[in-house]
Each structure stands twice: as structure tokens, then as C-alpha cells.
Design goal:
Elements: E1 2-7, H1 19-36, E2 40-43, H2 58-66, E3 73-76, E4 79-80, H3 86-99, E5 106-109, H4 114-120, H5 127-143, E6 147-150, E7 155-159, E8 173-174, H6 180-188, E9 193-195, H7 201-218, E10 227-235, H8 239-255, H9 259-262, H10 277-284, H11 286-291, E11 295-298, H12 300-314, E12 318-322, H13 330-348
Helix pairs in contact: 1-13, 2-3, 3-5, 6-7, 12-13
């Protein structure tokens, strides 16, 4: 099984913790993960999220990270393409691929927070069309000596990127898939995908089954894509200790200001306010969240079983854990990650799922 980190890059609400501390601490976590042998690190791009997610420029952070890591593959998850000019993304990705010596994984998407679209004066209701058009340009620049394009939203003429990619024909792509259209786009072109918690496991399995069906029908060439599951995670020496340590931070993650703005609203409320009543109640119940596989929490042995369980339920071959969430201290996050890499990771390395050929849930 492939294993990695996902990072919203949350800032504590405590004023004493500066943004200098925030970025330094996340680089330290990433450096530890690299030295421990984890496969992936992904950072979210968000804007104006009031502490919920504080990396408006993934390329800048990843450039710094490239000089402190040696083996871990890294990338944005995602570049919010409607907020960027695609020529800039193509150039920046080429630079990053060279800084990392061929370790870039490039997540792309349409964005999920309308507040940032207002701030950038970009039309929210046209984001999908803008994303697909931008992706055409990015791939075109990556795979042609010179490239021109005239679309509805973006234009470029005789672009000649002077920075060659290390990875050919281009770095591996990732795309979160929330709609039938995005599943079709990702699976038909061999783009890796990832699913998170809010919609629940039944919806995740349905999306993965649809992805597999499209992939098998399209049979895209190139690298085999990954099918990833992203979860908040906390590992401690015992189940009792893990639950005691993590409960406040799990609830804080869903209630902290700015979360709703991050995932679809305009206000300063918590993420739970944009979920329907029953789902909100389920996620705010930590024991329920652990039982259903939405929160990975426990001793190393328990965490191994939990991750194997959600992988078997969904048919996923990659796990991305968010070890820094809520108001966990740096010491708590690093200890959780240490226990994971020392005791959980070796067991999950023995665990394998053929995600692309996993049987349908209704088979």
C-alpha cells in the first residue's frame, strides 16, 4: 500500500503561534516523513480561510520543501486552476520538478470555495470549463516544443518553455472526483484520484466503482493511477490514550472558524455548518466517526486494522493521513507520525489491493 500525508496546513487560533512557526513546523513534519520513508506529501491550496487552511501558494512551500527532502514525492492537492493562468502553472511545475529531481506529483482541480473566486474576480459558475481548458494548455506546453491555444477563457501563442520536465511526458496528475464529470475526466485519462470523509463511505465506494468502470472502458496509456483515501489520523501508545488526546482536536477541526468558507460558504463558521443535520451529528460524534472509518484513531495495531478496513471497503490502494489538525501540538503530531512510521507503516507495506480491478460493490 502507498502511504503519504495530506496537509490543510491549519493554524492554531492562539495568537502566540505565528505564521513563521506554522510553516517551520510543517516543514519539520514533512522532513520527518521523508526520512521515515513515506511515499507522498500533498498540500492544499486555499485562500482567505481564517486559519483553517493557510497555504495560498503551494509552489512556494514545495520549493522550500524540495531542499529539505530527498525521496518523498510531493505536490499540490490541488492547484485551483481557475485562479491561475495555465502558462504560469506549466512553468512553475517544470521548475518544481527540477528542484525535486523528478519527484513532483501535480494535483489539479476546479476549487471548492466560492469566497476565493469572488476575491480573485473569477466566475464561480464557469470554474469547471475553465479548469478543463487550463489543463489542455498545461499539458500542451509540457508535451510540445512550442504551443499555441485560443480558448474561451485562456489564450497563449508560441509558448516555448525553456525548463524541461524531469518526468516524461509530464509529472503524474491527481484530481479529487466529486461529480460524474470529474470522475469521467480523471479515469479516462489515467489521472489518480482521492476521496475524503464528508460524503461517507457509501458515496466513496460508488465514486471509486464509477472510476474503475470508466478506466477499464477507456484503457488510458501511461502510468497506472492511484486511488487514494484521505483521513485525519492520530496514533498513540494505546486506544484509550489516542481517544483522550484526539477528541478535542477532532471536534475542533470540524468546528473551527473558516471551515465553512473553505468548503463552500462565505461566512466564518465551522465546516459542520454546511453539512446536513444527520451527517453533522455523525461527524461530531468521535466514536461514530472512528467506527465508520472517517477518523483513524488508536494504537498502532488498531490503526493498521482501521486503514485496512477502509481500503477494503472502498477498494483503495493509497492512504493519505492528515497528522496535523485541530490544535494538536507539534510534539503530539510528530509522536503520532513516529508511531505510524515505526509500527503501522511496516504492516501496511505488506497489504496490497488491486484498486483498478477491485470488484464492484454490487457484484
Amino acid at each position: 500500500m502507498k502511504l503519504g500525508l495530506f496537509d490543510h496546513m491549519q493554524k492554531h487560533d492562539h495568537p502566540a503561534r505565528t505564521y513563521v512557526d506554522l510553516y517551520r513546523n510543517h516543514l519539520e513534519v514533512l522532513e520527518f516523513a521523508d526520512q521515515a520513508g513515506m511515499d507522498f506529501y500533498f498540500v492544499a491550496e486555499h485562500h482567505f480561510d481564517m486559519g483553517f487552511s493557510e497555504c495560498p501558494s503551494p509552489g512556494s512551500f514545495l520549493g522550500a520543501a524540495s531542499q529539505r527532502t530527498k525521496n518523498i514525492r510531493m505536490g499540490p492537492l490541488v492547484y485551483v486552476l481557475p485562479l491561475w493562468h495555465p502558462v504560469r502553472v506549466a512553468e512553475e511545475a517544470a521548475l518544481l520538478d527540477n528542484l525535486m529531481n523528478g519527484r513532483l506529483e501535480c494535483g489539479i482541480g476546479a476549487g471548492i470555495g466560492p469566497f476565493s473566486f469572488v476575491a480573485y474576480n473569477v466566475p464561480w459558475d464557469q470554474k469547471r470549463e475553465m479548469t478543463l481548458e487550463a489543463l489542455q494548455i498545461i499539458k500542451g506546453i509540457w508535451t510540445h516544443e512550442t504551443f499555441s491555444f485560443e480558448g474561451k477563457y485562456f489564450k497563449c501563442k508560441d509558448v516555448d518553455s525553456s525548463i524541461p520536465l524531469v518526468q516524461k511526458p509530464h509529472p503524474p496528475l491527481w484530481m479529487p472526483t466529486r461529480s460524474k464529470d470529474s470522475i469521467e475526466e480523471a479515469a479516462s485519462t489515467g489521472v489518480s484520484t482521492v476521496q475524503w470523509v464528508p460524503s461517507g463511505m457509501k458515496a466513496t465506494r460508488k465514486a471509486f466503482d464509477e472510476y474503475r468502470e470508466v478506466y477499464q472502458r477507456a484503457k488510458p496509456s501511461g502510468r497506472k493511477p492511484h486511488m487514494g483515501l484521505m483521513r485525519e489520523i492520530y496514533v498513540a501508545e494505546s486506544d484509550k490514550q489516542a481517544r483522550a488526546d484526539a477528541e478535542y482536536h477532532w471536534k475542533n477541526f470540524w468546528e473551527r472558524r473558516g471551515g465553512a468558507r473553505t468548503y463552500g460558504a462565505h461566512g466564518a463558521t465551522g465546516l459542520t455548518t454546511i453539512l446536513d443535520g444527520s451527517r453533522r451529528q455523525q461527524l461530531m460524534d468521535m466514536e461514530h466517526s472512528i467506527a465508520e472509518g472517517s477518523f483513524i484513531c488508536g494504537s498502532p495495531d488498531t490503526v493498521v486494522r482501521q486503514i485496512q478496513s477502509i481500503a477494503n471497503q472502498a477498494g483503495g490502494d493509497t492512504f493519505l493521513g492528515e497528522f496535523t489538525f485541530g490544535e494538536l501540538t507539534q510534539k503530539q503530531a510528530l509522536n503520532s507520525l513516529r508511531l505510524f512510521t515505526e509500527q503501522v507503516m511496516p504492516e501496511l507495506r505488506k497489504f496490497e489491493i488491486d484498486a483498478l480491478n477491485f470488484p464492484r460493490a454490487d457484484a
